[in-house]
User: Fold these one by one.
Assistant:
Number 1:
Amino acid sequence: MSLSFLLLAVAALCALSFYFGRQRAVALSGGRHSNLHSLPVHYGAYTAAWCGLPALALLLIWYMFQGSVIEALIVSDLPQEILDDSGRLSLALNSISLIAAGNGQHLTVEPEIVDAGRRLANIQTIANAALVVVMLSGAVLGLSLSYRKITADMRARNNIERIARYVMIACSAIAILSTVGIVFSLLFEALHFFTKINPLEFLFGLEWSPQTAIRADQVASEGAFGAIPLFVGTLLITLIAMCVAVPIGLFSAIYMGEYASPKFRAIAKPALEILAGVPTVVYGFFAALTVAPFLRDNGAILGLDVSSESALAAGLVMGIMIIPFVSSLSDDVMSQVPKSLRDGSYGLGATKSETIRNVIFPAALPGIVGAVLLAVSRAIGETMIVVMAAGLAANMTANPLQAVTTVTVQIVTLLVGDQEFDSAKTLSAFALGLVLFLVTLGLNVFALKVVQKYREKYD
Amino acid sequence: MTDMASLMEDRAAAKVISDNLRKPVDWDSPKIARNIKKRYAAERRFKIYGLVAIGIALLALCMLATSIGSKGYSAFYQTYVQLEVHFDPAVIDPDGTGDPAVIGRANFDGLIKQSLRDRFPDVTSRSDKRDLYGIVSGGASYDLRERVLENPSLIGQTRTIWLISGDDFDMLNKGYIDPTVAEGDRRLNDQEVSWYNDLVEAGAVEKQFHTRFFTSGDSREPELAGIWGAAVGSFYTLLVTLALSFPIGVLAAVYLEEFAPKNRFTQIVEVNINNLAAVPSIVFGLLGLEVYLNVMHLPRSAPVVGGLTLALMTLPTIIIASRAAIKAVPPSIRQAALGLGASPVQTVTHHVLPLAMPGILTGTIIGMAQALGETAPLLMIGMVAFIVDIPGGALDPATVLPVQIYLWADSPERAFVEKTSAAIMVLLAFLVLMNGLAVYLRKKFERKW
Amino acid sequence: MAAVSQSAMAAKPSVENPKMTARNLDLFYSDNQALYEVDLDIAEKQVTALIGPSGCGKSTFLRCLNRMNDTIDGVTIKGEVTLDGRDIYDKRIDVVQLRARIGMVFQKPNPFPKSIYDNVAYGPRIHGLVNSRDELDEIVMTSLERAGLLKEVKDRLQSPATGLSGGQQQRLCIARAVAVSPEVILMDEPCSALDPIATAKVEELIDELRSNYTIVIVTHSMQQAARVSQRTAFFHLGKLVEVGETDQIFTNPKDERTKGYITGRFG
């Protein structure tokens, strides 16, 4: 039974129990709702909740453990020599799952593995059937228990409201859970990585070439995991992006907020916001196929040697992407500067630009700094533009015309394609992810604090 | 600050105004007049900076649009070549069984090759023949088979048929390959160009609307590749995302806004949500890879995993938008309901939520639009695979529109450039539609309290 | 008091040699008319108080006198306002210069988020009134002195102005206005955000400033108008109802509406 069908079945059971609960309440009331503590729908909702929630919880728990349990069952029966070789093991597991899915006819593998594949298919069938049984029995059990508890003076509304409250708390907790999930999954694999590579070497090493470490039996299998070139590349591109986005974003915000006629604003503002809604993959395409060749050709005319994957192209396009971000944030911030300060300046005979430069801008500066920091954090974490327009070469250079690589580019290249969770190459992506997460988190926390402090000041 | 600098320059000038507080400033003095002039010039300059900034931003937008549009519009048309095909019974159905299974296995490719050889009989060498076969796409044989299966009476006849052309030929016809440059610098040699000219003169080359682009899945051959597979993948992914993030997001927002006590837990949740909204999307990809694939062993490349990952990513957007919408409902409404004896939950479900719904939906649509355009986290969970089949459900391997764009952008064939641009246009069209809907909702239900 | 000779003139609706005049002044916010044909003279080196119930147009009128209404969208003005006989709404008049000649102090103290010194120095700097740091120092000191603030702040000129108390902030704003040596100072309910002690100080200050500047003050408090002003104008529903010497307005108002307002029957 497929998952969607199972979910539908549970939903149908919920609807049924709603009906039963409601019917029972109506029957108990003897036709007068005032004999009941709560409305009939509350009784219905009560039984429906007790039917659906346990089933969903069971499903969730089941899926959390099913994969690892089945894998453990299969692995435990494999011959020792396969278990000892991690490369062979992952290959074997791959073949086993292919065979189990019925796609393994063309494989030439040991009979043990064919057996294991069949066993896996069996286990999967059993597991699926068991899941159906467990879920449905959970649902029915919940239904019958709650159905029996219904009496005329049961506080069904209070009960269902308490359940609703717990469900809401659980939903809010998911926000925390996903942070915890991020931290743990990054930390877990990164620590795994640091048992192979010294963290100091990773953070301060000057050479990055993880691609050599694909197979253990290759010569020079160690690779080099010094991330400084990636940090330098990321910073270089971020810097270029900021050089584009901050002045243009700020001046657009100023013009929109202080000078533009309402008509102009009504057209230009949404147009600017379109820039923010364009998917990053589109910017990446634009950078790689339009901007980079343009820069290269024009650079050649000027006698400059511009790499076709130059940091400049990626940075420029990233800057364009961030313009609306900077402009809308700083617009917000500047419009919060109280009108009395403007009046004070105009009243002394200052011109508009003098008022903006000498009064509004300094007053809004903390907020603007916060906005710029948020933009920096975005630029650092931006992936697609750099994946498509910046290179893979881990050059340590401050020359924007050369190719550089960034943290995000490396994470993508390391994790797209074959992943081996015991090789330093794959694991290093998580270490990079951890650094990326910590840096952006630090920037965000700091920037949000600054902005909030600023808001409080003028509230 | 320029004022200060000029003041320093004027330091040598007479110290006249030392007692200017007693006698009024002479506003008509040349010095003041000069100063005023300078100030107004600065004012104009400043204003121009602003205009220039907006101009640059809008110019960038225009360049982006024209670059995509000019590269992509031609992908909606495809070159077809007219050939005389003889439906040779000896090839299609030698025993005259009429059995569709037999016909289906027949070598239609051979028929096309034969008719190409018939059209250009002077081609003899092996390599020339290979070039010759490149005029027609490898996919044309499937079309031919469909045709015969639909209408078996064709067997034995000779018909003039429009066949889909190969990608290089298509590029030549669309003008992307310049036949005037040196032979070594273009993908087609002189002989191929002469075949093309020959066919054009005979009126046997034409561009037709390229429906296949909208109906088929990915392919290694640009002329056969379509976006339908990716679109369906995107649909399933978004479905999962919506099914998870909408209820969870709204419930969390309701809790935080209406029920949560102001304690440490709520505070942590709030800070958390604000920060999650700014976590780079690729980090969510790493989370998905580790938790869904490595720990829970969900299938790789499946929309369900993509949806789960994107749901976590969109959650903060939806929560923040929903909270704003809920906050905008005036307290008087809550007091009225509570005053009538409604419980807090009833107050929320009967009054607050319906009133906040337009705002919540707007936020949700915007969050979905973000998710639709998201690429990086999906690369992490294996949705970059080359998948030809149209996915039939959320558990089948699939790719999504932005990833398809990424994949095509990486392909070396010239013809994929126009496909990529066209796919971008389709993606943008969806995004415009979604955002338009959000704007419409906001306008329609906008309410001033 | 040099008012003996002036009081004779002040009894008339117009004064001789007025510093500023308004004639037939109409003002519209988009389609709503806020001022109706206001005729008023502002006597030089006197304090003119504008009183009236809230929304009567007195603040609006005040903001017409230095064209602060220009910064609001949708405001149109008809009629004539003159400074020393020249129409300030004339195209050739430069607003920036005009506002330097006619300073303004606002309802709520609005020091810029800069140091005390920079607040006062702001006007002279933008208008290019000084040639050296010493001159600027002198202007700042003199202005603070005039605003009666120097003693309180002279040791912390570089500390942020927002750290001052409300009354000090308002006097700083007055010092800031004085620093460009304006001819007229407009004050829009300058004491409404201040406590009584701070109010007393500001009122004292206004009285001192009168010897050098022409002052127009909008006030909600009739006592304040009576204490600080020589002439008083009563506005009602966008119209100037009555204007005259303060003593006369408060003791013997000619118009019934004025009488009603002053005796507290409305407002």
Number 2:
Amino acid sequence: MLAHLRRSAVFAVVSFVFFGLLYNLAGTGVAQALFPHQANGSLTAGGSSLIGQTWTSTRWFHGRPDNFGPYAANPKTGVAGGDNPLVANGVKGESGATNLGPRSKALVADTRQLVAWWHAHGVDPTTDLVTTSGSGYDPDITPADALVQIPMVSKATGVSPAALRHLIASQTQGRQFGFLGSPIVDVLDLNRALARLE
Amino acid sequence: MAYFWTIVVLVAALAVAWRFLGSYMAAVFDGRVHWLGWLERPLYRALGTGPDHEQTWKRYAGALLVFSAVSVFATYLVLRLQGSLPLNPQHLGAVSPALAWNTAVSFVTNTNWQNYGGETTLSYLSQMTLVVQQFVTPAVGIAVAIALVRGLSRRSSQTVGNFWVDVTRCLLYILLPIAFVAGLVLVGQGAVQTLAGPATIHDPLNGVTQVIARGPIAFMEAIKQLGTNGGGFLNANAATTFENPTGFTNLLLIFLLLVIPFSLTYTFGKMIGSRRQGAAVLAVMAIIFGTWVGFTSYAEHQANPAVAAAGLAHQPTGNMEGKEVRFGDTSSALFNVASTQTSTGSVNSSADSFTPMGGFGMLTGMMLGEVSPGGDGSGLYTILLFAIIAVFIGGLMIGRTPEYLGKKIQAREVKLAGLGVLVMPIAVLVLTGLAVSLQAGRAGPANVGPHGFTEILYAITSQGNNNGSAFAGLNGNTAFYNVIGGIDMLIGRFAIMVPVLALAGALAAKAVVPESLGTFRTDKPMFVGLTIGAILIVGGLTFFPAVSLGPIVEQLSHGRFF
């Protein structure tokens, strides 16, 4: 028993130094040396291309409704209602999904609100535009999700639908190696390209 | 079609790893790999033990239990004291006692159940302390499996190996090199690895100012998957881009969590001197796993009933509630099935928002005892328990003393195997019954109706199987769920490991009986079918009533919402 205890203590200390400290520190060092942009969160001037943002104005393409409409965070209560990163515009949050079940009345009601919002703006929404993501800040939509928003964005910005279609095509990233994941459009990149176009 | 190729590439990569990693692992545990000997030898000196100090099963189990207790205590201490310790850029305070207990037990039992949101609760130092357990616990699991394999391969032996040596070799030669390379690949794809604190950034286009959580995420991600741990840095786990940025990393993470449990069957075959026996066990695992991937992927490709009721009946991209666009419906289902069936529990999408049959797939995958392919080590030793049950049933049918790999399976072995197989269902059903009977338990679920019941059942099944996957709507961070969850996880880990080691000791002491005409061949399809039958019957008989009240009722309630 005592021998077990002594060995356990030694092993705990050694494994903490090796796998808690050295593994993480060496990993951070090599990662920062080889891939500094990615290792620091793919940050650009207006945000991380890997972290979704909330787009409320109709002059921008919208991402998944993670922090929008019925899912928007409530700044009055200060409660993380929607899904922000640690903080968005002063409202706290953390990554996560709504966790509403497939037969949840709340999910039916929330989705109805979103469908109605899109219809009011002349858009026939796709599934992604009325469902929330797993992380709560999905940065991407599919090209189809972007295409259906053209009537709304075109009306607000005055950019012709044809130009917007071209813009979406230029911002589309195909499946990785032709078969992995889904074709995606990064909403932040798309809106930046839209801003340059105007 | 893209999904088809994803599966083809995954299977091909696993097949190559099965052959080569499997044989490499056998060499590691036979002591034929030495390239880190300069690290290994001084450690043995410090421990006062070494490869020549063989242990009986009792000493092996004793070392394991004492070491695990010390690990729980040390982890608990760091979580409680994180406020006064370095590497805490967000100045987070101490973790509450009940939560620290649950979390410490959770990581030491390889469960990685998380009743906390990582980025808002734990300092970088606490996360790195959990990484230590993410390395050590799969090594402990694999060591137990190897001890059982030695029990089967040795003849008239009193010993089953040395715990410290097995764990050390597993850590240095298997887990560390693979995790390090995988971590680097993840960063290259966009996963974050930094010690700088959160980033604050303003977007002039929409006027949004975000504070973005960062940290040493990618390298934790690598060992979290490889070690079938599952506990990620961020609350939303592998659904976040910082843990799992692309379609490629998604496949890599699935590969990492499957690779050791599947490859260990080759190691098993090699160590007992018959690859066909290893292949038979692999077949059992692969048939169950493939079936579950098939119907869960199909279920998730269907429309979400609530979204359909809200006016979007046509959902060509499947159930996207709680899923990320870059993965899509089927790759999300594949990830979560792989994760629930390997006792990993990481998620790349919200398990709670899966369709009723998708949720059924994940829940029942855990209920089968985590054998398809199961966690690192735990998958192999649990399926070997079922193999012993299967040969016992076969022996009963023809009225002959059963044998497995030349070892006579007698009353003691069958009792130990039965104990190992039944501990988990008993713990899960009793504790679920307790949770739904008490107000403290019923207060947990976020959803109501059958889905609320499923949230409770899922949580307790997950912890009893050391999985850690969650229907995350359940508020598990209460004194009640923290405490019973901790008990559930301890039972699910150690009340199975100890009988397994006792079995290893009993088998090692036996002589080998020569094969005869009457011997039931355990490398043939008949045995594969019998073992699958044993797994399905034990799981089905124990859990069918409970599952009927959850996902099955939910699936059948057409047009009703709760």
